[in-house]
Specification:
Layout (H helix, E strand, L loop, with lengths): L2 H11 L1 H5 L13 H8 L12 H10 L1 H11 L8 H14 L1 H14 L17 H7 L6 E8 L4 E8 L6 H7 L2 E3 L7 E4 H13 L5 H12 L5 H28 L7 H4 L3 H4 L12 E8 L4 E2 L1 H4 L25 H5 L11 H4 L19 H4 L2 E11 L4 E8 L5 H15 L3 E4 L3 H10 L3 H6 L3 E3 L2 H4 L4 H7 L14 H9 L3 H4 L4 H20 L3 H30 L5 H15 L6 H27 L10 H6 L1 H32 L10 H36 L6 H32 L6 H4 L6 H4 L16 H48 L4 H15 L2 H12 L31 H4 L9 H5 L3 H25 L1
Helix pairs in contact: 1-41, 4-5, 7-9, 7-12, 7-37, 11-12, 12-37, 27-36, 27-38, 28-36, 29-31, 29-32, 32-33, 36-37
């Protein structure tokens, strides 16, 4: 029994003490002894149907204790602060203490470096109150009681506050606890519980804070309350800020705190260049693309105000800063007035042949939808190995060119010349980049805009000849589809970021990609190199035999012939881009002549129509004036149409220099009629192609692993409708083709088309395409086989370079970080331990890399070397450089926190404190009644 319970019980037992309390209990109880007699059993408690007797009895027994409790419940002062006010003050208070908290975290981490996975209550941190009091004898040390939330346990406990602790928060962090309040913390979460959630969240982005906290409450055997989720969210933010602060300290200690250092050294195979490397056309390959899955609903939409929604910039006190994230201000520097509310194709229409095939080239149809969201998605850039380079928020728009321009500009600043950037609309972006302010710089640095492999097959054939990965020299076997692979995993973040704040959305996205780079991409780096090497060797082995056979069938002796054929196809297709101007005028003239003949016939029909008047119908005709007016109006309209068509014909005759008007018997008339029929044929072919394009993409989406059952069912129904539409469009095409004597298509043949370039060879109606040597199926297969062999040879050269870079990086990085760790081992062992943890983030995967490298060396076609080379970068912070010790004392100092914020901070836990007090007092009352009844 506690001291409080004992005093309360003595007050109940002693009449003198009872008389000191408030004597009047209620109207039904005339003396204080009544309650005592009820407890003794000498009197029965009068219970009425109205109720309230037990409340009056308890009030009389507890006296001031009851009054203070009731007043505490009713006396809570109103709080007029907004959530932003609280968040701002809380963030500011935590910020000034972050240095001390980070230092305390490093001390705690160093102290528990060998304890394994013990929880807070299983370690020596948790002691009884008596033991802590004994340890505090003779020292100026205080005790702080907080509610500790661990993975498997939660209870109130006391921790020591040493004289060296600058703040209560740093005292808690020194014990492995992250506080939920910056000034007077009443609750704290253990580092183990936060680390578990943070790690699990990166592996399973669907895991929410509320779901995790509910799971903890289930394991603790207590009910869930909403304030627990808020407390955990605050503690998680503080924990991540502490980790970021410690990471910055480590980067400064190892001299890697220069601007864009991480970007310039993110991918060892791409950036760790060595001496005496062979020349490659592309110094670095990357892909960039936008994704609209990670949208965030605008705040005003959540409040019910849908009108006048504008992009709301993040508040300064809660802005999330990360080196991967491009700021809105930086991105907006590349925007122009033409780009407002439009996507790339709308900014400068230049007749791009691929525009109609890509939705992100024409954003007008979805412009209104973006107004519902503040951030409508993300735009990222990844290297060819999958490392995320840059992230930018797309704000109330689709894929505007400013995002791609901003990313390209940043990468040009970081990596310089000879970059190759893949983009699903890279053909259009090439024109946009050339006409932008960045164009001259991109040309001087030899930047190349490329088209991804998968998306490239859906582009126009003429575009493929210039941009398809198969035909681009120096590209190797790279498909430039890294963004699609990244989005297939990052889409799992959508559910938890859709209604998050700007700060927490960016925090979740940045943490996810950072974890993915270190734990997924880097872990599978040498596996990527191994698989690509195998693919290149298989392509060379099988492709050479196939190419020799095809060259024998075609009678080709020199492989250079295939390059000539490709150039001939390019010239041929360019001639089909636009109709000759003279033919266009002739077709228009023919159509005007047809219209003129029709309008003349209509006019003559009206003028030749007579109404015969007889004695029998003269009266009705004279009385029906409306019929007369209708006939006159029809005559006037026919006359106007004839005169309009005649004027158009006369104008075209002047432009074409025609001295005698064509008639159907003329040869010119018949030639123009054939041209018009060809145009109908082209349009029928376009319709068939459009439907087949939709079918191809729906089939690919239906086979995608992330597609749910309902979406697959919807796509299946759409495919059934699409097949019916293809049959109807094919009937129209065959009708137009028969009129021209062209080859007709069968339904089974069309639905098996896998490449849209097959349609482009059907377009020419001026000459027979089969006369060209490169148009036969065998020739086209030989061309593709030849260029795939060329790309496979380039891939082997690039892989040999990248493999040696990785080997050298593994050696140099481990040596450099171990030397940095030794520099601080004596003066600052806690910081040295953090450097060792920073080293082990990647060194844990070294055994995996060594095994994969060994497998590469055993490949029959491997012609590279695993001997480490010499890095060309030996500057400050480089793995091949010489580390130097940096003074860290000034970084860890923290200014004192103003005491005026204590009252505001105390109110953060007012609801929880009041609930806890009521629970404790009710428990005391229950104990009193139990003891009394037992006596």
């Amino acid at each position: 029994m506690t001291v409080t319970e004992r005093h309360a019980l003595e007050a109940l037992r002693d009449p003198a003490l009872n008389s000191a309390a408030d004597g009047h209990v209620g109207g039904d109880y005339e003396s204080d002894g009544y309650g005592e007699m009820v407890l003794d059993g000498t009197e029965a408690l009068d219970v009425s149907h109205a109720g309230g007797e037990f409340q009056e009895l308890t009030r009389g027994l507890l006296g001031d204790f009851w009054n203070s409790t009731s007043e505490g419940a009713r006396g809570k002062r109103p709080d007029y602060r907004t959530f932003r006010d609280r968040s701002t003050k809380q963030t500011a208070a935590f910020s000034v203490q972050m240095g001390a908290m980070a230092e305390a975290y490093m001390v705690w981490s160093f102290k528990h470096r060998g304890t394994g996975g013990k929880g807070f209550f299983d370690s020596d941190e948790r002691r009884t109150r008596e033991e802590q009091k004994r340890s505090c004898d003779g020292e100026d040390t205080k005790l702080l009681t907080v509610l500790v939330l661990d993975v498997f346990r939660a209870e109130k406990t006391s921790v020591t506050v040493a004289p060296t602790d600058c703040y209560l928060t740093s005292a808690l962090v020194r014990h492995g606890l992250i506080p939920c309040s910056p000034i007077t913390p009443k609750a704290a979460v253990t580092v183990h519980a936060l680390h578990l959630y943070h790690t699990a969240r990166q592996r399973c982005p669907h895991l929410s804070i509320q779901g995790y906290v509910k799971s903890l409450c289930d394991m603790h055997g207590v009910p869930f309350h909403n304030h627990r989720s808020r407390q955990f969210s605050i503690a998680l933010d503080v924990y991540l800020q502490v980790l970021a602060f410690v990471s910055n300290l480590v980067h400064r200690a190892v001299q890697r705190d220069q601007p864009d250092w991480r970007l310039k050294h993110s991918c060892p195979p791409c950036t760790y260049k060595l001496q005496d490397e062979p020349e490659m056309r592309f110094a670095m390959l990357f892909a960039q693309d936008g994704n609209d899955s990670l949208k965030r609903v605008a705040t005003r939409i959540l409040d019910g105000d849908i009108d006048h929604v504008t992009a709301s910039p993040p508040t300064s006190e809660r802005t999330f800063h990360h080196e991967q994230y491009l700021t809105r201000e930086f991105v907006d520097k590349f925007a122009s007035e033409r780009q407002t509310g439009h996507s790339i194709i709308d900014e400068d229409s230049d007749g791009n042949l691929c525009a109609e095939r890509w939705k992100n080239m024409k954003d007008n149809a979805t412009q209104k939808m973006w107004n519902v969201f503040d951030e409508s998605g993300v735009f990222i850039a990844v290297c060819r190995h999958g490392f995320c380079l840059l992230i930018a928020d797309m704000v109330q728009s689709g894929e505007q060119s400013k995002y791609a321009l901003a990313v390209t500009s940043k990468l040009l600043d970081a990596f310089g010349s000879d970059l190759g950037g893949g983009y699903d609309i890279g053909c259009r972006f090439k024109t946009t980049l050339a006409t932008s302010e960045l164009g001259e710089r991109a040309r001087s640095l030899n930047y190349t805009s490329l088209v991804n492999a998968f998306h490239g097959h859906a582009h126009n054939r003429l575009c493929q000849l210039d941009n398809l990965t198969t035909y681009v020299e120096g590209l190797g076997l790279e498909d430039l589809e890294g963004c699609e692979r990244a989005f297939s995993k990052s889409n799992a973040l959508a559910s938890s970021t859709r209604y998050a704040s700007i700060f927490h959305r960016r925090q979740a996205i940045a943490c996810y990609f950072e974890h993915n780079d270190e734990m997924e991409v880097y872990a599978n780096l040498t596996k990527f190199l191994l698989n690509n090497y195998k693919q290149a060797l298989d392509t060379l082995s099988n492709g050479r035999a196939t190419l020799d056979r095809l060259m024998g069938e075609l009678g080709v002796t020199d492989p250079a012939t295939f390059k000539i054929w490709l150039d001939e196809e390019r010239v041929y297709l360019k001639s089909l881009v636009r109709e000759p101007p003279e033919e266009t005028l002739q077709m228009e003239y023919w159509q005007r002549l047809v219209s003129l003949a029709a309008s003349r016939q209509d006019l003559e029909t009206i003028l030749s129509t007579w109404t015969i008047v007889t004695a029998q119908n003269v009266a009705p005709i004279c009385s029906d004036s409306s019929a007369t007016r209708k006939r006159e109006t029809a005559r006037r309209h026919a006359q106007e149409n004839y005169e309009k068509d005649l004027k158009a014909v006369q104008e075209l005759e002047g432009r074409l220099g025609i001295t005698r008007r064509w008639v159907p018997e003329d040869e010119e008339w018949q030639a123009a009629a054939r041209l018009v029929a060809n145009r109908k044929y082209q349009r029928a072919l376009d319709n068939v192609e459009r439907l087949v394009v939709s079918r191809i993409f729906e089939l690919s989406k239906m086979n995608q692993s992330g597609t749910g059952y309902k979406l697959r069912k919807h796509i299946g129904k759409a495919l059934q409708t699409r097949l019916a539409a293809i049959r109807a469009a094919l009937t129209q095409y065959n009708t137009a083709a028969k009129a021209l004597g062209r080859r007709t298509l069968e339904f089974d043949e069309v639905v098996e088309y896998a490449f849209l370039s097959d349609f482009d060879l059907l377009r020419d109606t001026r000459q027979d395409v089969s006369t060209w040597p490169w148009a036969s199926p065998a020739a086209r297969l030989a061309i593709n086989t030849y260029f795939k062999l060329c790309r496979a040879e380039e891939e082997v050269v690039r892989l040999n370079v990248e493999i040696r870079r990785v080997v050298t990086y593994l050696v140099d990085e481990d040596r450099y970080l171990r030397a940095c760790e030794a520099l601080y081992q004596d003066a600052n062992p806690a910081l040295a331990y953090q450097i060792s943890r920073y080293r082990t983030i990647r060194s844990r995967f070294t055994p995996l890399h060594l095994r994969s490298l060994e497998k590469i060396s055993r490949l029959s076609g491997f012609n590279g070397t695993l001997t480490p080379g010499v890095s060309v970068s030996r500057g400050v912070g480089d793995s091949a450089g010489v580390p130097k010790r940096v003074c860290m004392d000034a970084v860890l100092s923290s200014p004192p926190v103003a005491a005026d914020d204590g009252e505001d901070d105390a109110d953060e836990d007012a609801d929880e404190d009041h609930t806890t007090t009521l629970e404790e007092r009710c428990e005391v009352l229950q104990n009193i009644l139990s003891v009394t009844m037992d006596s």
